């Protein structure tokens, strides 16, 4: 039973990662990201998910510093962008992320997308970073099972996390089983279907039944499935709402109702076919 905002999953290398984190994609660097991250930290989130390509690592670092919360009490994730995926480029890109984040380590460093022809050599650089202690864990994002089939035989360090688009319309049970059977934790991006969950009737009905909102139902469904979740909001009342998911439990039957919404629909780019 997961019953608190600081409850953690244990990753395959023993590192603890909060089930709930705060995503900052599309939050502008400067005041907007600083105030959103500080708001999230003040209501109890202890995990922040950014990426070099979000162009807001500087603000994330500033918010963490200004929050007064000890760095070691925050789980910080960032990602290497596609153009930096070469052994020679990943190491300097990582240094630049650390500098912007004003920290000397991250808790999780991810390969943002499986760029064909480059992700294996990038993983070698990630392993080097991991061994240096400056990333407490390393993982991947947007990897399908065939990307992992290709990567895993070349790994000294098995990815701790696969961060993928994951929500009631996109359950990908094969990939879910694949990752779970190899102890690779799934982390949901766009868990709220970029806001579209509020219009899904079965979620509205469950929200009424549990006295919660569709967002809370969806996020609770994530963590009950053993999926780490990182909703984004710039609105203080929603930042709080999205964190109030630890005082109820969705029944087994209702979990199945949500699972059944799966239609394979994506709101973001498809890892099977992307060109950036
Ligand atoms: P989300 O599914 O978290 O949805 C965010 C949207 O939903 C925003 O428009 C937000 O609006 C709205 N929203 C937030 N809370 C609520 C609520 N309680 N009720 C109704 N609407 C709400 O989308 P994201 O794409 O941002 O995904 C989350 C995080 O995942 C990102 O921030 C990023 O960290 C990560 N990510 C990773 C990717 C990858 O390739 N690895 C790709 C995409 C995202 P408002 O802000 O106005 O509240």
CATH class: Alpha Beta
CATH topology: TIM Barrel
> Beta-strand level of the residues, as a percent range?
5-15%
Helix/strand order, N-terminal first: EEEHEHEHEHEHEHEHHEHH
Tally of individual helices: 10
Largest sheet: 8 strands, parallel
The structural class is alpha/beta
- What percent of residues adopt helix (DSSP H or I)? 25-40%
Q: What is the general shape?
A: globular
What does the radius of gyration come to?
Answer: 18 Å
Describe, in plain words, how this protein is organized in 3D.
The protein is α/β, with parallel strands linked by helices and 276 residues long. It has one domain (8-259): TIM Barrel, CATH 3.20.20.100. It has 10 helices and 10 strands. The strands form 2 sheets. Strands 3-4-5-6-7-8-9-10 form an 8-stranded parallel beta sheet. Helix 4 (119-132) links the parallel strand 6 and strand 7. Helix 1 crosses helix 2, helix 3 crosses helix 4 and helix 7 (201-210) packs across helix 8 (214-224). The longest helix is centred in the middle third of the chain and has 15 residues, at 87-101. The chain is globular and about 55 Å long. The mean pLDDT is 97. The structure holds NADPH dihydro-nicotinamide-adenine-dinucleotide phosphate. NADPH dihydro-nicotinamide-adenine-dinucleotide phosphate (NDP) binds at residues 23-25, 49, 112, 141-142, 163, 189-195, 198, 213, 215, 230-235, 238, 241-242, 268.
Question: Main traits of this protein?
Answer:
38% helix; 8-stranded parallel sheet; alpha/beta; 10 helices; binds NADPH dihydro-nicotinamide-adenine-dinucleotide phosphate; 276 residues; two-stranded antiparallel sheet; globular; TIM Barrel
């Amino acid at each position: 039973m997961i019953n608190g905002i600081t409850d953690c999953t244990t990753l395959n290398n023993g590192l603890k990662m909060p089930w709930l984190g705060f995503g900052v994609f599309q939050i502008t660097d400067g005041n907007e990201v600083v105030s959103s991250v500080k708001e999230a930290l003040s209501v109890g989130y202890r995990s922040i998910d950014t990426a070099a390509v979000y162009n807001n690592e500087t603000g994330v670092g500033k918010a963490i510093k200004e929050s007064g919360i000890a760095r070691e009490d925050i789980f910080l994730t960032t990602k290497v962008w596609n153009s930096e995926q070469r052994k020679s480029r990943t190491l300097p890109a990582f240094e630049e992320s650390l500098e912007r984040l004003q920290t000397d380590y991250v808790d999780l460093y991810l390969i943002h997308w499986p760029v064909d022809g480059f992700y294996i050599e990038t993983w070698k650089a990630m392993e080097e970073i991991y061994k240096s202690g400056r990333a407490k864990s390393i993982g991947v994002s947007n990897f399908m099972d065939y990307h992992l089939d290709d990567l895993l035989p070349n790994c000294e360090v098995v990815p701790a996390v696969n961060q993928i688009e994951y929500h009631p319309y996109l359950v990908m049970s094969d990939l879910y089983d694949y990752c779970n059977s190899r102890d690779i934790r799934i982390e949901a991006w766009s868990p709220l279907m970029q806001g579209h969950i509020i219009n899904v009737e079965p979620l509205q009905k469950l929200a009424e039944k549990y006295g919660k909102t569709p967002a809370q139902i969806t996020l609770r469904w994530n963590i009950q499935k053993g999926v780490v979740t990182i909703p984004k909001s710039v609105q203080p009342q929603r930042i709080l709402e999205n964190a109030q998911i630890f005082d109820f439990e969705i029944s087994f039957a209702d979990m199945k109702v949500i699972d059944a919404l799966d239609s394979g629909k994506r709101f973001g780019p498809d890892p099977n076919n992307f060109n950036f």
